[in-house]
Amino acid sequence: MGVEIERKFLVVDDSWRAGTTGSLLCQGYISTDPERIVRVRIEGGAACLTIKSKSTGISCGEWEYAIPLQDARALLDEVCQRPLIEKQRYRIARDGVVWEVDEFFGDNAGLVVAEVELNAEDQIFVRPSWLGEEVSHDRRYANASLIKNPYKNW
Amino acid sequence: MGVEIERKFLVVDDSWRAGTTGSLLCQGYISTDPERIVRVRIEGGAACLTIKSKSTGISCGEWEYAIPLQDARALLDEVCQRPLIEKQRYRIARDGVVWEVDEFFGDNAGLVVAEVELNAEDQIFVRPSWLGEEVSHDRRYANASLIKNPYKNW
């Protein structure tokens, strides 16, 4: 088990795209209960099953297990709630942290968020020029929420 | 992924106990949604995370992963719904099949069920003398149901 400490922001422009290449993520949820989220994710040729406990502030417990790709495909097809989430993830290393910028497709097209994983809740980091409003505490932006209330309906 | 084909019965007396020794199981549920059950189980020194898809008749899809014992303890303590299920499981090999007799504790004390896992839905098997009424299709006997509506409330 690890503790995931993460802050999430909107982006104000497209300047983060310069020189980045992303990878496609497909993920689905077996449980969207905020106290016990269960996610299946495929990225590239690898797959994982992740359990997240109730978040307190910007931290939550996280247990992640690699699973066979064919299991993940079956779980996404047969078990996960609908719809699935598809997004392109761009990783941008900058000033000692790695920003993950997610560009959503499907019913969440138009939504772009930037996340940074921290080692402590009070860790100081440099804000890139393209970083916008913080949405860490807005549950609407949780991926498990986006399958019930997609961005196109906001 | 496997397909689990299982039939479940009550028992009519205690004669199944002769010569058996059981092992203690502790399990909890992250999801009790009948279409996507997620279970954490500790038996002896081993632990597993199991996902079950919607059952059709007596069959359901099952994906099971061994996980570290300390992860399972944390998931049972911090993530699983309350209450947990504790039961003694007895395995009885008889006439080519293995009967698993579960004797429940806590709020389900007094409940004893016998399950047999089959290779096909129409597999013929010999009914032991202690086997009672079949309850395969009665959702109340599903362990994921017993945490919401325990036997003591029936």
From TrEMBL, chains A, B:
CDD domains in alphabetical order: CYTH-like_CthTTM-like_1
Family matches, as InterPro entries: CYTH-like_dom_sf, CYTH_domain, NeuTTM/CthTTM-like
Q: Which SUPFAM superfamilies match?
A: CYTH-like phosphatases
Query: What range(s) does the CYTH domain occupy?
Result: 2-147
| Catalytic residue positions | Y29 (proton acceptor)
UniProt protein name: CYTH domain-containing protein
Q: Which organism is it from?
A: Undibacterium rugosum
